[in-house]
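stuck on this:

***
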Amino acid sequence: MRIPTAPIAPDPDEARRWAEEELSGALYREAEPTPIDRFARGVAEFIGSIFSGQVPETLGPWLAAAAIAVVVVLILIAILIWGRPRRAARSRTPIALFGADETRTADELRADAEAAAARSEWDAAIVLRVRALARGLSERTIIDPQPGATVHRFAADASRAFPQARDDLTAVARSFDDVRYLRRPGSAEAYGAVRSLDQRLASARAEVFAS
């Protein structure tokens, strides 16, 4: 009868060789992170370190500042890309302007007013330019014309944002009423006053926002 012998323990070199053969198997290779995994983890750790203020020392202060600047620029670009469509959509939203639902933008109304003025159609030119003035302030969210609001209500609201133009706004509202409702003939002088006011307020900074 053969008596079983106890297994012989490997020496250190043999044990290391067995371990290397075992770890080199396909199962262990599949469990290791891929180069893409390591790269993604490194990028995530880097961005996290920027926002936490713990920038890697190997980068140096100048490179860290440049990286932060790049992140800020990317954020600003995203705001511009996503913000502009919203603003364009707002400018295309129909609003009631002194008896008419207007879908044209302020720039389109200005162009149509200039075309009417070129034909000496002063009544139409004045009406269009006053609406362009109101539309422009609405697009800038300085005023918010309510349905049924009169041109004089617009002038009062705009005067709160531009108190220095109160008299001119009142005069423009009066000119609008003259040609629109009282059937008084418009003139090149009256249109010039409306155009001048529109151009001034288009680039002016509002002191307060009208409520």
